[in-house]
C-alpha cells in the first residue's frame, strides 16, 4: 500500500508484491469526492484510507491469484511525502476502521526523499 501525501493532495495505491496494480486499487482525494482546496485536508486523506481499507478487506477475503495475489495477505505500508494524508492514514489504521487489516500489516516504511545539501543556490540579485 503506497501512500503519497503532498500539501495539495493525497493518493493511495494498492499493489501486489510484484508491483502490479490491484484492480480498483487506487484512491485520490479527488476520486473520493473532494474538490479544490478541500483535497489537501485531513478529512480527504481519512476518507481515502477508509476506502482503501475496505478494498483490502475484500482482497483478504478472496485474493485474486490470477493477477498475482497471495494468501495470506501481508501489507507493507510505504509513506512518501509530508501532508495531512500521511497523518490521516496512520490515525485511520489505529481506529475501528483499521481493525480488520491491522493484523495484516508487516512493514511500515518511510520513503520520503530528504534533501541533504542539494544543488547550488542561484546567485543573489544585486540592485
Summarize the structure.
The protein contains three helices and five strands, in the order βββαβααβ. Strands 3-2-1-4-5 form a five-stranded mixed beta sheet, with helices on one face.
How would you explain this protein's 3D organization?
This protein is of the alpha/beta class and 127 residues long. The protein has 3 helices and 5 strands, in the order E-E-E-H-E-H-H-E. The protein has a 5-stranded mixed β-sheet with strand order 3-2-1-4-5, covered by helices on one side. The chain is globular.
Briefly note the structural class of the backbone. alpha/beta
Q: CA-to-CA gap between the ends?
A: 51 Å
Report the radius of gyration as a whole number of Å: 17 Å
Poorly predicted residue ranges: none
Number of DSSP-assigned strands: 5
Q: What is the helix/strand order?
A: EEEHEHHE
Biggest sheet statistics: 5 strands, mixed
**What's the total helix number?**
3
How large a portion of the residues is in β-strands, by DSSP E? 15-25%
- Let me know the average pLDDT: 86
Overall geometry: globular
- Range of helix content: 25-40%
Strand order of the largest sheet: 3-2-1-4-5
